[in-house]
Design goal:
Blueprint: H1 4-12, H2 16-25, H3 29-35, H4 38-49, H5 70-83, H6 87-90, H7 100-116, H8 118-121, H9 137-140, H10 148-151, E1 193-196, E2 199-205, H11 208-221, E3 233-239, E4 244-249, E5 255-259, E6 265-267, E7 273-275, E8 286-289, E9 302-309, E10 314-319, E11 325-328, E12 333-336, H12 344-357, E13 362-365, E14 375-378, E15 388-392, E16 395-403, E17 412-420, H13 424-427, E18 432-442, E19 450-455, E20 463-465, E21 468-471, E22 485-488, E23 491-496, E24 505-516, E25 527-537
């Protein structure tokens, strides 16, 4: 007679799908009991996804189960792996568990791509296969220990299919037989892009072997990359013409952006943090602000604890930069972790996926003057607290900004868009044309703004109409849109701010003057459409 323990040992050697089949067909008796038992599926979670202990109750979306159900957890993780093309791996003996957090992150991102940008999804390569590679991370960095949460990025998708004709040395990698990925154009970068004047880019995820080859090439040509503090950095993403390089430290997982020809690296992800405990919460303690929604621009900033306000249940926090003091909940305060968890690249990737899911970034033209040729993921926020919106007399103005750490000036690029809303009867006019604009840029709330007046916006005087704008010699005197004609959708343009008197933190607002009809044949009095101020600041996560 075979007891439950003996059956369990046998079932553990079965593929999970076989155990599920037994569970579904055997409704009673030992087989059904063992096949649906907690021990079997906890073992499967550990063997296939490396999840054990408290992590075994976590689902791919990040939430924990209120009542532990290992079967449900395994099914959801299996579905996430299937989403990213790893179904075969979850059904076969594995040399090592799949990287669960990377499976979950890629599943979220790929689900968005499948719905919103299938042409970018089609550029994703199969998982990195060490047996087909001329070089691995461990071989490229023999004098350090590569963190598994860095290597895990390529174990789900080995970057994007490479863009030919770039002329960038070192950009060669193995292509598996039968690889069905499609070569991207320069605007189909997985990590999105921006354009400001002649600075236009979209950042691609490199295949691992291409990243290793290009990093080796850079080390030969760029002296500062051979300094001791930079020898563990890998260039893993870049745009097609080399305006923006994204590096990861393979030991601690920190992500950096670097500018062509400059020996500096700007962190793109906040340091790992630990929650502030009651024992550590005392006056003078240095804390980092996290999770703020009303003052999102303060996230990542540092301050020192002051007195605790018993009535409000909040701590006074004296900011280290500036003279501001804020009352904040303890849950919004953390301390930097002493030991790096190595998950910086993964947290950066997860935050990017979250922004796509939340609609912060959208698929739309990156270069507005080339709306059909440059469609990709645009990094100017389209939704969320970083976006300003205001409607004045039927004109809606929407604006946001991006911190462009990769340009020499390290400035803020901003996007301003406007369109007509309502009906002509409600507005009192059918069309209106932009004539002038006034910007008010402030470094702090208590100082006078810098006021900038100008004609039109970067050479345009758009004529707004229902559903879009009219592009002709009157609105586009320099012929930037080529053939012109009626352009559907909002009029958008990008530019960049000047230096802010208060440093790298401030606000940008103002107004745009429109005349009903057009400048040659006005049909009413001019009016000013408000540009509601949006914040200029260096965010915790940079993309």
């Amino acid at each position: 007679m075979v007891d439950d323990h003996q059956l369990l040992q046998a079932f553990i050697f079965l593929e999970p799908k076989s155990a599920l089949r037994v569970r579904e067909t055997s409704k009673t008796g030992s087989f059904a009991r063992v096949a649906g038992g907690r021990e079997l599926w906890l073992a499967a979670l550990a063997r296939v996804f490396g999840l054990s202990g408290r992590e075994a109750s976590r689902l791919p979306g990040g939430e924990r189960q209120e009542e532990e159900d290992p079967v449900r957890a395994y099914q959801q993780w299996h579905a996430a792996a299937r989403d990213v093309g790893l179904q075969a791996a979850t059904s076969s003996p594995l040399p090592a568990p799949l990287p669960a957090r990377w499976v979950a992150a890629w599943s979220r991102l790929q689900r968005w791509l499948s719905k919103e940008a299938p042409e970018i999804e089609a550029t994703l390569r199969p998982p990195f296969q060490a047996e087909h590679s001329n070089l691995s991370l461990a071989e490229a960095f023999p004098n350090c220990t590569v963190h598994p949460l860095v290597a895990g990025l390529w174990s789900v998708h080995d970057g994007q299919a490479q863009l030919s004709g770039t002329g960038i040395p070192g950009m060669t990698s193995y292509t598996p037989p039968g690889d069905q990925t499609q070569e991207p154009d320069r605007w189909q970068g997985l990590f999105g892009g921006v354009s400001v004047y002649d600075h236009a880019l979209s950042v691609m995820l490199l295949p691992l072997e291409a990243a290793l080859g290009f990093t080796a090439f850079l080390r030969e040509r760029v002296g500062h990359l051979n300094r001791e503090e930079h020898t563990t950095k890998l260039a893993f993403a870049m745009d097609a013409v080399g305006n923006k390089f994204v590096f990861v430290d393979v030991v601690d997982g920190t992500v950096y952006v670097s500018r062509r020809g400059f020996p500096d690296f700007t962190p793109m992800v906040p340091r790992s943090g630990v929650a502030l405990t009651d024992d550590e919460a005392k006056e003078g303690t240095t804390v980092r602000l996290v999770g703020l929604s009303a003052r999102y621009d303060l996230n990542g900033c540092y301050g020192n604890l002051g007195a605790f306000d018993e009535a409000k249940g909040r701590w006074q926090v004296h900011m280290k930069k500036g003279s501001e003091t804020h009352l904040l909940k303890q849950e919004n305060l953390c301390q930097d972790a002493v030991d790096s968890s190595g998950d910086g690249l993964l947290r950066w990737f997860e935050e990017y996926a979250r922004r796509l899911e939340a609609g912060v970034y959208e698929r739309r033209p990156i270069v507005n003057e080339q709306p059909e040729q440059t469609v990709g993921i645009c990094l100017f926020p389209a939704n969320g607290p970083e976006v300003s919106r205001c409607v004045t007399q039927g004109v809606e103005v929407i604006a946001s900004c991006v911190y462009t750490a990769e340009v020499p000036q390290r400035c803020f690029a901003y996007s301003i868009a406007f369109r007509l809303v309502g009906t002509a009867a409600e507005r009192g006019y059918e069309t209106c044309q932009l004539t002038t604009r006034t910007w008010r840029i402030k470094g702090s709330e208590d100082e006078e703004p810098d006021v900038i007046n100008g004609e039109g916006v970067i050479g345009f005087f758009p004529i707004l109409a229902d559903g879009g704008w009219i592009c002709n010699r009157l609105s586009d005197p320099h012929g930037q849109y080529g053939d012109g004609g009626f352009q559907e959708g909002m009029f958008r343009y990008q530019s960049c701010s000047g230096q802010i008197s208060g440093g790298m933190r401030g606000s940008f607002g103002g107004s745009l003057r429109f005349v009903p009809g057009n400048r040659k044949k006005p049909t009413g009095k001019p009016f000013d459409a408000e540009l509601k101020p949006f914040k200029l600041y260096i965010p915790e996560f940079i993309f």
